[in-house]
Design a protein that fits this description.
alpha/beta; Nucleoside Triphosphate Pyrophosphohydrolase; Rossmann fold; 2 domains; His_PPase_superfam; Nudix_hydrolase_domain; hydrolase
């Protein structure tokens, strides 16, 4: 979802790791302000929050992050009287050189107590506490299952060929391109899609950018779902069993069944969000980002985010 409204939008992450079983988090030092904080930065025009968080972490620390659960946001006033909103995620480093940019002169990995002492701003301790709470309940190390509705397509009334061949509109193509940094921020590496053109075209830019194969499954198509709804559910079951970082792209009529199935393994707020989306639907080109722990029957949804056009 791209930032809208007033204020200065920014995004960042608490990058964490375990060294000899001990949890550590990464702090950055900015010599211009002589402060210690979490890596973060402003959104570029039209950029989504998650994509900005991943980009800023990479630019400031040289580490390529994979976003996990969302953490509490920070909203605070600036000297010019405006408000700044920063959205954060927990993240693991999955690559990168560690080369620093000019704005950052030091990155240090610290235990949570040491990090709390080092932080310059008291407000930054809120995200640290949320990360520790997630770790205690086993919700910090996750894998992602993204459920995607295809982007805007040429209308049925203006298309005289097979419905499965209806292409995306220019707006639909724009949204497909925008999904690339979003799915990339969460580390999606397996793409499963209805074979309809409007679905495969929605995830095609991401597939090209990351050299991934799109696995076309007829069970996720509108036509097969109408006659055999169980086939779509079997694809969801396989995704839960595999526990890979997966995006499933399908159609509006198919989504409620998939989301109701996920809701069976989602407690609290995550269950509520899934049932709401099953009832009210996803926007065209929207990705519902579900952070998961465990696999198969033990799989559990620990957070749900809407990445919207």
């Amino acid at each position: 979802m791209t930032a809208q409204g007033g204020g200065q939008p920014a995004a960042g992450a608490l990058v964490w790791r375990r060294e000899s079983g001990v949890l550590q988090v990464a702090l950055v030092h900015r010599p211009r302000y002589d402060d210690w904080s979490w890596p973060k930065g402003k959104l570029d025009p039209g950029e989504c929050w998650a994509g900005a968080a991943a980009r800023e972490v990479l630019e400031e620390t040289g580490l390529r992050p994979r976003l996990g659960i969302p953490l509490p946001r920070a909203v605070y006033g600036l000297r010019d009287g405006s408000l700044k909103e920063v959205r954060y995620w927990a993240a693991q480093a999955v690559g990168g050189s560690g080369t620093l940019e000019n704005e950052i002169d030091r990155v240090e990995w610290l235990t949570p107590p040491a990090a709390r002492e080092r932080l310059t701003y008291a407000r930054d301790s809120l995200q640290l506490q949320a990360l520790l709470d997630a770790d205690r309940r086993g919700a910090l190390r996750t894998w992602v299952l993204a459920v995607v509705r295809h982007g805007d397509a040429v209308s049925r009334s203006s298309w005289d060929r097979s419905d499965t061949d209806r292409p995306l509109t220019p707006q639909g193509k724009k949204r497909a391109a925008a999904l690339t940094p979003a799915l990339g921020a969460y580390g999606v590496r397996r793409l499963v899609s209805s074979p309809s053109t409007r679905c495969t075209a929605t995830v095609a830019p991401y597939a090209r950018a990351h050299q991934l194969q799109i696995r076309e499954k007829r069970g996720l198509s509108e036509e097969v779902f109408a006659d055999e709804p169980g086939r779509a559910l079997r694809h969801m079951e396989r995704a839960l069993e595999r526990g890979e970082f997966t995006a499933l792209c399908t159609h509006r009529p198919v989504l409620p069944a998939l989301l109701h199935r996920l809701a069976e393994q989602a407690p609290g707020a995550a269950c509520t969000t899934l049932l709401e989306r099953a009832r009210d639907g996803l926007e065209k080109g929207e990705a519902l980002i579900c952070q998961m722990v465990d696999v198969g029957e033990a799989a559990r949804v620990v957070s749900v985010e809407r990445n919207r056009p």
